[in-house]
Sequence to fold (231 residues):
Amino acid sequence: MEQPNATKLKVGDSKRIITNQDGIHDKLEAIVRKHLSHEFKKPYQQHTEKAFAEINSIVQAFDGEIILDACCGVGQSTRILAEQNPQALVIGVDKSANRLTRNVAGDWQSDNYYLIRADLNDFYRLVKAANWPIKTHYVLYPNPWPKSKHIQRRWHGSAVFPQMIQIGEQIILRSNWLLYLQEFQLAASIAGKTGEITKVVEGQQPLTPFEAKYQSSGQQCWQLLVKNTKN
Ligand SMILES: C[S@@+](CC[C@H](N)C(=O)[O-])C[C@H]1O[C@@H](n2cnc3c(N)ncnc32)[C@H](O)[C@@H]1O
Fold:
């Protein structure tokens, strides 16, 4: 029976990504190099600073590993990761209050997680400055921004990429758009990191509603793993 207010994402009819790019964006390398050599000075938004200060005191008092679930949407992956990693503190971050407060269907037993409303363009910089001991940094199905002119809205084209790429001993990025991961992989290599792209294995519990939607539409989901061992 359908649960009232349960997370609803139409499954089975997800459109494939349509882009006007025929390969890696021709300005990507220049954009990444510019961001790596210029400090991102935009002032923090107050709501993100406040949200960070609250969760930062919990993180600083926690003596264990931290898992960051960036762009967590409704927080399904945050809850799954919390159950799978009972020893860890799992922090899901999304800018959308609407998504974060939606009910998620599931039988969740763990309470070792927090869902935080914040803008990651600011939150990432605060996390980096506070040097959180993040074991794994997940970015699952970020908005693809497939139009060429929107390259700087993709995480690897954003001004916060230099901080983002240094967060976590490893970064796990998933998308149904292989080119997104190939671009991120190239950007990571410019920042001195290596990453490996593999197919997301089907038949396991999808980590997120978007993963479930793409898989039930017959779309291949991809994963990029970036190791950041010197962090
Ligand atoms: C395509 S959804 C994927 C959500 C979830 N990971 C999933 O797979 O179901 C992308 C999410 O990224 C969030 N997002 C985009 N830009 C963000 C930002 N600057 N800060 C925080 N969240 C952001 C959106 O609000 C949205 O929930």
